[in-house]
Structures are given as structure tokens and as C-alpha cells.
Automatic annotation (TrEMBL):
CDD domains listed in its UniProt record: crotonase-like (cd06558)
Coiled coil segments of this chain: none
Residue ranges of the TM segments: none
Record GO cellular component, one term: mitochondrion
GO biological process, one term: fatty acid metabolic process
Keyword entries, A-Z: Fatty acid metabolism, Isomerase, Lipid metabolism
Protein name, entry field: Delta2-dienoyl-CoA-isomerase
SUPFAM superfamilies cross-referenced by the UniProt entry: ClpP/crotonase (SSF52096)
Upper lineage: Eukaryota, Fungi, Dikarya, Basidiomycota, Agaricomycotina
PANTHER family (UniProt xref): DELTA(3,5)-DELTA(2,4)-DIENOYL-COA ISOMERASE, MITOCHONDRIAL, ENOYL-COA HYDRATASE
Length: 286
């Protein structure tokens, strides 16, 4: 059975372009605007893949819409949510809003909960929430004509779903990062590379950047899933902790991980001049 079996839904198209690699395409016409239903389904999909123990070792996230990655939040849906019956007073309203924002943040942070790397392949426009979405991914590629904007200040708020939390960790250029966040101006793939938001600018458009990302995913999927998963966890821990704390974490993690049969298989495959064959990380629950 395909790893992608039964995963596609109303706004998300899922395929398995190569063994152990999934391709998830955002597909809510006309502009991939994120409603509550959309971002809830997005998080549920990524969490489900890991929960069901599907033998996924890399995932590429892209857009099925030729002209853009996403236009960001669905403003019409946002308006409907704010018009819902409000609690009795402002304090209760604030608590209600806080819970909603935390649920939204948790959803968009779903790539970090995956045991495998998630690679974003973007093209066209990446607006507002699009920056939040790709910032939570492990690796980000962009087609050369991609245009980005941290749009939130233009609608009267500070970006609150991840951009302002992730970008200071991602970027080595704090001045440029603040300029873009304060002004909401559009910036190019070249500037995104300068910012550190993306690692590669791919010539061409949608097809080119997706092909490049899928090729990278295929390479990653050929590696030990124990090693790749462990590397992801240790890097995430390192981002949020001191060197000493991370070294302790790594020692504890590898005390268990070094017992993997993947090491023996890697060495044996090298001697026999063949590609290694690795077992899934966990037993499927399907």
C-alpha cells in the first residue's frame, strides 16, 4: 500500500513520488488562504502521518496553485470567527482569544513534531501566514521569482503564529529581519537567502523548485531514519538550550540511539558496495 493512501483531503493533496517520501500540496483555490478548517486539517495530516507510524523519511510541502504558495490567512474566515458569540466580559474574551491563538500556533508548528525532515518548496507569493508555515519547516527552497512579505503590520497586528518566534533563531541578519517585519514590504528570493530564511534559490518556477526539493527529500530518505530523526531532535533542542544542556541531551539520546542496527547495516553496505536497507522507525498502526 502506498504511504500516501487515504491521506489526501479537501484542501491537501498527498502523493508518494519516491520510496519513503511524501509530497503534500496545499490546494485551496483560488489563493490557498487559510481558514480554520484548512489549518486544522494541515496539522491533523502531519500529526497523523507520525502517529500511524507510516514509514515516511522526508516530506516536501508545496502549493498546487501555479501562481503562489499562499496568500496567508483567510480574512473572511477571520471575520466570521470574531463575530461569534463573545464571552460575558473582556477578560473572558481575552482568554478565549489566547486559546484560539495557541491552537493556531500548535497547528502551524506541526512540522517540528514530525520525526522526519519537512522541506518547503515555495514559488510565487508567500504572504503573512506563509512565512509562519515555512519557518516551522526544516529546510526551505524558493523559486527565483518568489516574493515574500511579513504582512501582519499592514493589517494592524504583530505576527503571532510563529514568524517572530522563529526568524530570530533562523536569521543571522537581525537588522534586515526587523526591517521586513516593521515595514511589511515585499522581498525577493535573493533577499530571503540573505536573511537566511531559505537555503537555495532555484532557477525557474514551481516545477523546478518542487523537483529540486523532491530530489533532496529522496537523498535524505536514503539515510538511516534513526540518524536523521535523532539529528532533527538534537538540532531542535540545541536551538532552545545552552551548549552544555544540549551536549547532555545528546549524550542521553545517543546512549539509546547508538544501539541501532542501522550502524551495522551502514558499515555492511559500504563493504558490499550497495545501498543500505533500513527498517522503519516504528511498527505501522494502520
Amino acid at each position: 500500500m502506498s504511504l500516501a493512501a487515504d491521506l489526501s483531503s479537501k484542501f491537501l493533496s498527498v502523493s508518494e513520488p519516491s520510496p519513503h517520501v511524501l509530497h503534500v500540496e496545499l490546494s485551496r483555490k483560488p489563493v490557498n488562504a487559510f481558514s480554520v478548517e484548512f489549518w486544522t486539517a494541515y496539522a491533523a495530516l502531519l500529526d497523523r502521518i507520525t502517529h500511524e507510524g507510516r514509514d515516511v523519511r522526508a516530506l516536501v510541502l508545496s502549493s498546487a496553485i501555479p501562481k503562489l504558495f499562499t496568500a496567508g490567512i483567510d480574512v473572511a474566515d477571520l471575520g466570521q470567527s470574531s463575530n461569534e458569540a463573545a464571552p460575558i466580559d473582556q477578560a473572558r474574551q481575552a482568554l478565549h482569544t489566547r486559546l484560539h491563538l495557541q491552537e493556531f500556533q500548535h497547528a502551524i508548528g506541526a512540522p517540528e513534531r514530525c520525526s522526519f525532515p519537512v522541506i518547503a518548496a515555495v514559488h510565487g507569493l508567500v504572504v503573512g501566514l506563509g512565512i509562519d508555515i515555512i519557518s516551522a519547516c526544516d529546510i526551505r527552497y524558493a523559486a527565483e521569482g518568489t516574493q515574500f512579505t511579513i504582512k501582519e503590520v499592514d493589517v494592524g497586528l504583530a505576527a503571532d503564529i510563529g514568524t517572530l518566534a522563529y526568524l530570530p533563531k533562523i536569521s543571522g541578519n537581525g537588522s534586515l529581519m526587523r526591517e521586513l517585519a516593521y515595514t511589511a514590504r515585499y522581498f525577493s528570493a535573493a533577499e530571503a537567502l540573505q536573511l537566511g530564511l531559505i537555503s537555495t534559490v532555484v532557477p525557474g518556477g514551481r516545477e523546478g523548485v518542487i523537483a529540486k526539493a523532491l530530489d533532496l527529500a529522496k537523498t535524505i530518505a536514503s539515510k538511516s531514519p534513526v540518524a536523521v530523526s535523532g539529528t532533527k531532535r538534537i538540532l531542535l533542542h540545541s536551538r532552545d538550550h545552552s551548549v552544555a544542556e544540549n551536549l547532555e541531551y545528546t549524550a542521553v539520546w545517543n546512549a539509546a540511539a547508538l544501539q541501532t542496527s542501522d550502524i551495522t547495516e551502514s558499515l555492511k553496505a559500504t563493504r558490499e558496495r550497495r545501498a543500505p536497507v533500513f527498517s522503519p522507525l516504528s511498527k505501522p498502526k494502520l
